[in-house]
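Subject: Interface between my chains keeps coming out wrong

I've been trying for a while to get a sensible model of this assembly. When I model each chain on its own everything looks fine, but I need the whole thing in one frame so I can look at the contacts. Pasting all components below, labels as-is. Any help appreciated, I'm running out of ideas.
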Amino acid sequence: MNQRKILEEKLFKFLSGFAAYSLIAILAFIIVIIFLKGFNSLSWEMIFKTPKGGYYYGGEGGVLNAIIGSLYIALGATFIAILIGMPAALYINVHLIRQKRTQNTIRYFLDALWGIPSIVYGAFGFTLMLYLGMNASLLAGIITVALLITPIVVRTFDEVLNTIPIGLHEAGLALGSTKAETGFKILFKQGFPGFITSVLLAFGRGIGDAASVLFTAGYTDLIPVNLDEPAATLPLAIFFQLGSPIPEVRERAFAAAAILTIIILIISLGARIISKRYSKSNIK
Amino acid sequence: MIETMEQANTEVNSDTSILKVHNLNVHAGEHHIIKNINLEIPKNKITVLLGPSGCGKTTLLKCMNKLTDLYKELKVSGNIYIEDDDILNTSTNLPVLRQKMGLLSQRPFPLPVSIFKNVAYGLKLKGIRDKKLINYSVEKHLRETGLWNEVKDRLHDPATSLSIGQQQRLCLARGLAVKPRIILADEPTSSLDPTSSKIIENRFRDLKKQYTIILVTHVLRQAVRLADNVVFMYYGEIIEQGKPEDLFNNPETEKLRKYMLDGN
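Reply #2:
Try treating it as a single job with all components included. I did that and got this:
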C-alpha cells in the first residue's frame, strides 16, 4: 500500500471510531447528568410509594403510581401491537411475496404512520375517546399508545422477515408446509432475535412517550385497578415536576427520569439475554 | 456381482417414467426462459439437467414442485404430469404434491432448530406424533445419508453447528423423511468441498434404488459420473437428451460439443 492509502485507512478508522464512541459518550453523559441531578431524591420511597398530599409541593411520597401506570400502558400497548403487527408482517412477507407493488404500497403507508408525531396520535386518541364516550383512562392510553407503536412493530418485523433468505422459505414449502406453517414455524423462529429487538424499540417508544398519553390516560395519584380508571405515567410525572418552581420537586423530576432510564436499561438487557438464547439455531 | 444385479434391476424399471413435462413454457416479463420443453423423467434413475448457468435448469426444477409460485415475475404454461396428475393446471394440494419431492438447494438451508428436529419436521407435518416412530425414522434417514455416526451424540445441538457439507446431508435426510418419490437436487454440491461433494454423490448412487433423482448441474464431470439420463439445456431449450454414453461420446450438436470442450 502506498502512503496515501495508509493515511486514508487511518483517517477512516479514526472517523468511524470517533462517531461510534461519541454516541456511547453521549449516552453515558445523559445518564450521568440525570443521576447526578436526581441523586438526592432517588430513594426507595420514591420507587415504592405513591404521592401523598402535598407531594408536588415537596411533600412525602413517590412516583409508584406513574411507574405502574407507565408499565401497564407500555405493556398493554406492546401486547396489542404484537398481536396486530406479527400477523400483518407475516402477511406482507408470506402471502404478498409475489405482489411487490402491494407490498411497497403497504410499506409506504406504514412508514408514513411511523413518522406521524405522537401528539397527533394523542389528539386522534382523544377524539376517538370522546366519540366512544370514554373518559381519560388506562384503556384509552393503551389504545392510543398501541396506535403509535403498531407501525413500528409491523415495519421492523417486516424488515426482519425481509432479511430471511428465500432459500429457507423454499425449504419450508418444499417439505410440505403450508404458508402458515412456514410463517409461524420457520420464519418466525428464524426472525425471533430480530423481533425481540423490534418489540424493545416499540416498548421503549411507548413507555417514554408523553404526548400520546397527555389527553388520553389522564393523571392520578392512585394506582389504577381498572381499565376505565385514569393512569399516571412517568413521562408526565417528569413533565409536571420539572415545571415546578420548587427546586426539590424539580430534582424529583430527574429522579423519575432516572427510574424510567433504569426500566429501559433492564428491559434492554433482558431482551438481549432472551434473544441470544433463542438465536443459537438460526442460520446466519 | 451385486452391482450388475442392481443394474439389471434398474433396467427393468427403465420404461416407466414418473414425471412428464409437456410443452412447458416459462416467461419472466419479456424473457422467454423455458422454451417449449418436452421431457420424460425415468423412474429410479438419475436424470441430470446439464447446461451453463442461466439456461433455465433451476427454473425447470422449480416448476416441478411449484416453487415458481413464490416468484411473481414467472408465468408458467404447459403441463407437468406426476403419475398422470397434471400439477400445473389442476388445483393440486400443494403440501401433498411437494412432499412427493425432496428439495436440495445450492446451499443448505437447515431449519432454525436442532439436528433432530430438522429431520422430524416433515414427519410432524404429516401428523405423526408417535415418538418411537419419529426416533426410528430420524435415525434411519440420518443413517441413509451417512450422517448418523457423526451426529448421534449431539442430536439436540443446533443444525447450524454442523459443517456445510454435513448440513447439506442433513437437508437430504430431512427431505427423505417425508418419503418423497423424487429428489430434486439443484446443484447440491456447488457450495461443498470435494470430500463432501463425493459423499453426496455416493449417496445419490445408493438412493436411486428407491428414489428418482433429478440433478441440476453445470459440472460436466459430475454428469459423467452420475447420470443415467442426460438432458442438455441451452438458453431455455433442450438441445440433446439421452444416455450419457451416447451423448458424450457422439454429441450431435455443436453446442454440446463446445460445452464439453469448455468443461474439460
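Reply #3:
Confirming on my end. The radius of gyration of chain A is 23 Å.
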